[in-house]
């Protein structure tokens, strides 16, 4: 999230919770805590929290984002298994495990960039026929 998006989020929370005190320094402080998260996820989480209680804190937004991402991961093909084949050599165990972790991160965060097929194939280091690219 950018500092400008944090301002948008705090204005949204002001609309959700008009009794919550938010001043001109609130976006700066909230950016320090919510910076690593996506605005869409944060807005959705804020709405869920505001539907349960009259005030919303950054910690509650983060907890709700984590709950939502954990639920997304559970819906990945099989118990913790991704339907994609990891884009790493299975004989290179550290690289293979890193690829699995990256897949699970992408599954949990729908805003993450999906890698195009030609990029996945060409990173194997093997010859790829031109018609596939």
Describe the protein's architecture and organization.
By secondary structure, this protein is mostly helical. The chain is built from six helices and no strands. Helix 1 (3-16) crosses helix 2 and helix 4 crosses helix 5 (93-108). The chain is elongated, with a radius of gyration of 20 Å. The two termini are 34 Å apart. The model has no long low-confidence stretch (mean pLDDT 82).
Question: In brief, what are we looking at here?
Answer:
This protein is an all-alpha fold and 133 residues long. The protein has 6 helices and no strands. The radius of gyration is 20 Å and the shape is elongated.
Key traits:
single chain; 133 residues; mainly alpha; 0% strand
Secondary structure elements and their pairing?
Blueprint: H1 3-16, H2 26-34, H3 39-52, H4 58-74, H5 93-108, H6 117-122
Helix pairs in contact: 1-2, 1-3, 3-4, 4-5
Total number of beta strands: 0
- Structural class by SSE content: mainly alpha
Helix share, percent: 55-70%
Q: What's the average pLDDT?
A: 82
Shape label: elongated
Largest sheet: none
| Pattern of helices and strands | HHHHHH
Cα end-to-end separation:
34 Å
What fraction strand?
under 5%
The number of distinct helices, counting runs of at least 4 residues, comes to 6
Provide the low-confidence segments as ranges.
none
| Radius of gyration using CA atoms only | 20 Å
